[in-house]
Amino acid sequence: MIPKPRKSWSSLFALFAVTALLLPRLLVAQAPTPAEKSAAPPTAAAPTRIERPLLWRIELPTPSYLYGTIHLADERVTELPPVVDEALERCDALYTELPMDMALLLKQMGRMQLPEGTTLRGLLGDALYDDVAAFVRQKGASMAMLDRMQPWAVGAQLGLIDQMKQMAGKPPLDMVIYQRAKRAGKKVGGLETVEEQVAVFADMTVEEQRTYVSDALANIRAEEAAGKNPTDELLRLYLQGDEAAIEAKVLEFPLTDAKLKKRLMARLVDDRNVAMADRIVRKLQEAPERAQAFAVGAAHYPGKMGVLELLRQRGYRLTRIELAADAAARAAEAAAVDAVIADRQRELEALRARRTKLAEAGAK
């Protein structure tokens, strides 16, 4: 018997895996009958707007920005606070996790699909497959598209089923800001590829994938039995901009297979953070004159192996931008600019002193 895990985790993909954006658009294409629909689970109270944006300025002569996203279409996240809107408008380029070209993403969906001649029922076994199918039907969705997906992809979607209709009808936050930047003629692109995201799960055995799906289902049911909605809880933390709570939520990621959990967490979060930070640094160095925005899932920023700390270790100074009154925001930015000027002046003075010593040595 599988012990009941403490928290639901499959909805965490809303914070760190853009591949979670793809399946909802396909799943809802199979319209459920009225008899299949069920009442939405109770939801926890959440703010009505973003209270503290996950927005940081990279303090350079030409500042760039980091923005933490959540891969949902909820209007509370897609309606950007003015301070975020202004930061993105200032930038000449925007990079999300993946290039948010839906035609390209759908073309690459094949990497998440089962090989020809393999069935989801065959991999999961009758009992687990029927359990998943019953849950999906209860949610008013269809197994028609899930039947073609790798078990790990199915497990990643179970916590997002309640949001599928909304995500199919409206673009999620990442796509909203990507499309807006593209329409404005800004340079756009991604920090990862679909192949890289899918590779996180590539070597999972069939047994590990069964555990993955079974744990996902058990966690969601446990949360709903307690009157909670896993994705709504993440949305609440995101709207509050609670960096520490988001990190704690990610670290709770429970799987009954401890070795599998350790391996997946390293690949899903830490390894990707390192790659993202390296690519951000490369883009900053390649185009220092360009103001650039980097918008990736909020779970990638906090912690000792988070993108923020990795950039700080590379010598970058970051400033969290708050929802402040205009005068206060301008004063804070002016102070940050003054600090950069002071740093440059110290560097210049050191270079002048070195030049003087070289001249004196040459005169002897």
Could you characterize what this model shows?
The protein is of the alpha/beta class and 364 residues long. The protein folds into two domains: 10-323, no CATH class; 325-364. It is built from 17 helices and six strands. It has helices spanning 13-16, 22-27, 75-78, 82-90, 102-107, 120-124, 126-138, 151-157, 164-169, 173-183, 194-199, 206-225, 230-240, 243-251, 258-286, 307-313, 326-363, and strands at 55-58, 64-69, 93-96, 187-190, 292-297, 318-320. Strands 4-3-5-2-1-6 form a six-stranded mixed beta sheet, sandwiched between helices. A hairpin with a 5-residue loop joins strand 1 (55-58) and strand 2. Helix 8 packs parallel to helix 12 and helix 15 (258-286) packs across helix 16. The radius of gyration is 23 Å and the shape is elongated. The model is unreliable at 1-11 and 21-44 (pLDDT under 50).
Secondary structure elements and pairings:
Elements: H1 13-16, H2 22-27, E1 55-58, E2 64-69, H3 75-78, H4 82-90, E3 93-96, H5 102-107, H6 120-124, H7 126-138, H8 151-157, H9 164-169, H10 173-183, E4 187-190, H11 194-199, H12 206-225, H13 230-240, H14 243-251, H15 258-286, E5 292-297, H16 307-313, E6 318-320, H17 326-363
Parallel strand pairs: 2-5, 3-4, 3-5
Antiparallel strand pairs: 1-2, 1-6
